[in-house]
């Protein structure tokens, strides 16, 4: 059950548990243990990326759509960015917003689980993970029903006359709502894992010293949960930035599409789209890795690895 | 403490719990919708509720009615089973090597395990597609069941390593030292002390792998060719209208998973209590 908690648990786990440094000298045993897994990752993770890189530089045979020849055409990147820069902006913006909202929703839940739930902790944990088992596509479609023009949310907002435009589906609001929902558990679990390890006595001591709930939270509780917040924001932002299912099922035809939609359609719907799609994928990965790197350097520790 | 402070304290004490319950409700709302719409007597698409003839048990009595639905479910379970088994074995071995051994390239190994988790699924899917089509295609590899399995093993390995590593790192090394002090050899120390202690982490990793594999859509969509898994079946049928039987199956999987987890927890706590 604690499966997902471990995801969050590990990045920061080393700091409090004082894990023993490995003592055994390498030798054959280490390499035998490593070999099968590393080979798998080399063949099915590294090699595909190399292939993707070469595809992103290929050119089309003129007059033979869908056929490519080896080339070093960096123009694909230029064409991809010229055509899809609004998609990039939307991906980063929507993912950023979704990460922010997920954090706002996740923190109280994780906090309550860690400090207030008592014997209900396990039950709440199951409740956070359980929705995973209904397919996420089905749940996203359920959001389309909930947010539809005849659904409860729009009806209430229209009754109160507070919804400009009168719709939620087919707008960016629905896409961000869907992203927030789908990746919320990835925010909750790491924050919970780091709060669970925190000693409630330290927070009580903070309360004694500051005698103000908010100050205690800002100066004691929040800093203690930072490793979890860091892991949670990464686990939310990265998949959200690459997602295309929410934009496809909840968004509109053009104005809410994200990079993922561009990659998907270049691969599957545009004949000869492989090089552009590959260039788009690579750019997305580079942008995300760069952001993650800066973010981890600013806030994180090496323990994330 | 003054009355004012006490009131504030009372409120603060419950505030987090109240928000938490609202967030849990939010998490469950779509599951509830999925459940309710499994009873919908819909005409063309199961998006809006049809008051005539609803609720109906028709879809629950005939869950495999729509062609391809239960076949895709079977594929998902098979893929999940194989991917979980292989990824758990390979990932556990990796975790032991990375935590317990000091060797050249350990840092690089850690990074290689970490980066797949920091890569958006769509990039993983796209890169695998190009490799399978342009690289392995010439050796006769066709997109389908096995390419899905290979891809799922890849992305599950990292999560297994992280999960098992966490468990291994929190292990008290004195337990193993004690075993060796009591003249246990390296073999029996491992199988009778280390392994049982790490086992809960391995089980968690396997459960996590299965649920990640079972619910994966993006990578699967890229590498599956004509083969369909349950999430892909739902996504593809969205345009023509999703059959309510998909809701029946989605909700049933949810109930089965919750039951298994509850049973597992009860057994786990029973086993712990006598000791």
Automatic annotation (TrEMBL), chain A:
Residues forming the ABC transmembrane type-1 domain are 88-295
Q: Which Gene3D superfamilies match?
A: MetI-like
Query: Where is this protein primarily located?
Result: membrane
Looking at the record, which segments are called Disordered? 1-21
Extract the PROSITE patterns matched here: ABC_TM1
Pfam families per UniProt = BPD_transp_1 (PF00528)
Entry keyword Transport: yes
Q: What kind of membrane protein is this, topologically? A: Multi-pass membrane protein
Cellular component GO terms held in the UniProt record: plasma membrane
Could you tell me what this protein is called?
ABC transporter permease
* Gene source species: Candidatus Phosphoribacter hodrii
């Amino acid at each position: 059950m604690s499966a997902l908690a471990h995801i969050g648990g590990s990045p920061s786990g080393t700091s409090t548990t004082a894990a023993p440094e490995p003592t055994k000298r390498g030798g054959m045993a280490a390499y035998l243990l490593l070999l099968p897994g590393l080979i798998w990752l080399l063949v099915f993770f590294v090699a595909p990326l190399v292939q993707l890189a070469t595809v992103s530089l290929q050119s089309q045979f003129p007059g033979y759509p869908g056929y490519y020849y080896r080339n070093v055409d960096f123009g694909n990147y230029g064409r991809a960015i010229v055509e899809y820069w609004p998609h990039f902006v939307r991906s980063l913006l929507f993912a950023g917003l979704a990460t922010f909202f997920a954090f706002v929703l996740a923190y109280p839940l994780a906090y309550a689980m860690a400090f207030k739930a008592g014997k209900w902790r396990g039950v709440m944990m199951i409740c956070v993970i359980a929705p995973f088992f209904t397919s996420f596509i089905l749940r996203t479609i359920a959001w389309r029903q909930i947010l539809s023009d005849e659904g409860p949310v729009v009806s209430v907002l229209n009754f109160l006359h507070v919804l400009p435009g009168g719709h939620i589906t087919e707008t960016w609001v629905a896409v961000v709502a869907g992203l927030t929902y789908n990746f919320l558990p990835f925010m909750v679990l790491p924050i919970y894992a780091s709060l669970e390890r925190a000693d409630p006595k330290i927070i009580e001591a903070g309360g004694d010293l500051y005698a103000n709930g908010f100050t205690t939270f800002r100066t004691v509780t929040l800093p203690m949960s930072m490793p979890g917040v860091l892991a949670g924001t990464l686990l939310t932002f990265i998949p959200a930035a690459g997602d295309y299912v929410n934009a496809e099922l909840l968004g509109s035809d053009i104005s809410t599409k994200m990079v993922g939609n561009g990659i998907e359609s270049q691969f599957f719907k545009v004949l000869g789209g492989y090089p552009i799609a590959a260039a788009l994928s690579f750019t997305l990965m580079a942008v995300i890795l760069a952001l993650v790197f800066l973010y981890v350097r600013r806030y994180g520790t090496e323990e994330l690895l | 403490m003054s009355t004012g402070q006490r009131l504030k304290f009372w409120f603060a004490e419950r505030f987090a719990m109240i928000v938490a319950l609202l967030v849990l409700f939010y998490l469950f709302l779509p599951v509830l919708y999925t459940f309710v719409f499994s009873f919908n007597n819909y005409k063309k698409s199961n998006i809006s509720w049809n008051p005539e003839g609803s609720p109906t048990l028709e879809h629950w009595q005939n869950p495999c009615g729509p062609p391809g639905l239960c076949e895709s479910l079977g594929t998902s379970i098979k893929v999940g089973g194989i991917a979980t088994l292989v990824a758990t074995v390979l990932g556990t071995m990796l975790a032991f090597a990375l935590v317990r051994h000091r060797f050249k390239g350990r840092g690089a190994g850690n990074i290689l395990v970490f980066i797949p988790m920091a890569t958006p699924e769509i990039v993983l899917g796209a890169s695998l597609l190009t490799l399978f089509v342009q690289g392995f295609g010439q050796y006769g590899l066709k997109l389908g069941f096995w390419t899905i399995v290979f891809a799922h093993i890849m992305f599950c390995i990292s999560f297994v390593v992280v999960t098992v590593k966490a468990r291994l790192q929190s292990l008290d090394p004195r337990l193993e030292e004690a075993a060796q002090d009591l003249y246990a050899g390296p073999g029996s120390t491992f199988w009778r002390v280390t392994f049982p202690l790490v086992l809960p982490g391995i089980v968690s990793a396997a459960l996590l792998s299965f649920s990640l594999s079972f619910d994966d859509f993006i990578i699967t969509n890229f590498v599956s060719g004509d083969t369909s898994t349950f999430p892909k079946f739902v996504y593809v049928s969205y345009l023509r209208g999703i059959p309510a039987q998909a809701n029946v199956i989605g909700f049933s999987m949810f109930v089965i998973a919750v039951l298994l987890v509850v049973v597992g927890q009860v057994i786990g706590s029973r086993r712990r209590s006598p000791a």
